[in-house]
């Protein structure tokens, strides 16, 4: 099988149910979700296989689920059963609570940074927020799986919690925003 097909040379791509322009809101939504997935892989390769073993396991599961989310977002017209479910969102909440329990109580806003692992996870967080915005735009125009939007919303919170836990494990302090006062009590 060849990697190139030449079918997209005119600026269109295939989605489940037909062809659309490559800058279609649906393509933007699943394409940005794919960007998140690529950066999750980047974060994983920065991790120590022993110190971050549970993080690697959880992030690998997230990569599979992001691929599922992309598949759900690529459906236009013809419908099949969606893969992203409310149970995935619930599980993310459990993971958030677990990783949040590793970090000290938050007092100020946290800037992206700290350890290389934490920095990579913060990139995942902001890209996930962008993907979520793209899915919101898509949902205004076309039918889509609402659970993908909820999943991405929770996933960005997960990346924040796991980034802070990574800093703790790597013995690096969070980088606090110093120009404001204590905002969390």
From TrEMBL:
<keyword id="KW-0547">Nucleotide-binding</keyword>
<feature type="domain" description="Cobalamin adenosyltransferase-like">
    <location>
        <begin position="3"/>
        <end position="165"/>
    </location>
</feature>
<keyword id="KW-0067">ATP-binding</keyword>
<dbReference type="GO" id="GO:0008817">
    <property type="term" value="F:corrinoid adenosyltransferase activity"/>
</dbReference>
<keyword id="KW-0808">Transferase</keyword>
<comment type="similarity">
    <text>Belongs to the Cob(I)alamin adenosyltransferase family.</text>
</comment>
<protein>
    <recommendedName>
        <fullName>Corrinoid adenosyltransferase</fullName>
        <ecNumber>2.5.1.17</ecNumber>
    </recommendedName>
</protein>
<dbReference type="InterPro" id="IPR036451">
    <property type="entry name" value="CblAdoTrfase-like_sf"/>
</dbReference>
<dbReference type="InterPro" id="IPR029499">
    <property type="entry name" value="PduO-typ"/>
</dbReference>
<comment type="pathway">
    <text>Cofactor biosynthesis; adenosylcobalamin biosynthesis; adenosylcobalamin from cob(II)yrinate a,c-diamide: step 2/7.</text>
</comment>
<dbReference type="InterPro" id="IPR016030">
    <property type="entry name" value="CblAdoTrfase-like"/>
</dbReference>
<dbReference type="Pfam" id="PF01923">
    <property type="entry name" value="Cob_adeno_trans"/>
</dbReference>
<keyword id="KW-0169">Cobalamin biosynthesis</keyword>
């Amino acid at each position: 099988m060849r990697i190139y097909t030449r079918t997209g040379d005119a600026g269109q791509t295939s989605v489940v149910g037909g062809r659309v322009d490559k800058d279609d809101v649906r393509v933007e939504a699943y394409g940005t979700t794919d960007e998140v997935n690529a950066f999750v892989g980047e974060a994983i390769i920065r991790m120590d296989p022993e110190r971050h073993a549970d993080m690697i396991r959880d992030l690998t599961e997230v990569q599979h689920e992001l691929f599922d989310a992309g598949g759900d977002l690529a459906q236009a017209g013809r419908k099949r059963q969606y893969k992203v479910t409310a149970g995935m969102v619930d599980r993310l909440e459990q993971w958030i609570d677990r990783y949040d329990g590793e970090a000290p109580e938050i007092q100020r806003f946290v800037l992206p940074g700290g350890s290389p692992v934490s920095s990579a996870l913060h990139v995942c967080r902001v890209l996930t927020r962008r993907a979520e915005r793209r899915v919101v735009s898509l949902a205004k125009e076309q039918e889509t799986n609402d659970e993908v939007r909820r999943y991405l919303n929770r996933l960005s919170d997960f990346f924040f919690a796991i980034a802070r836990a990574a800093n703790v494990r790597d013995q690096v302090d969070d980088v606090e925003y110093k120009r404001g006062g204590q905002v969390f009590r």
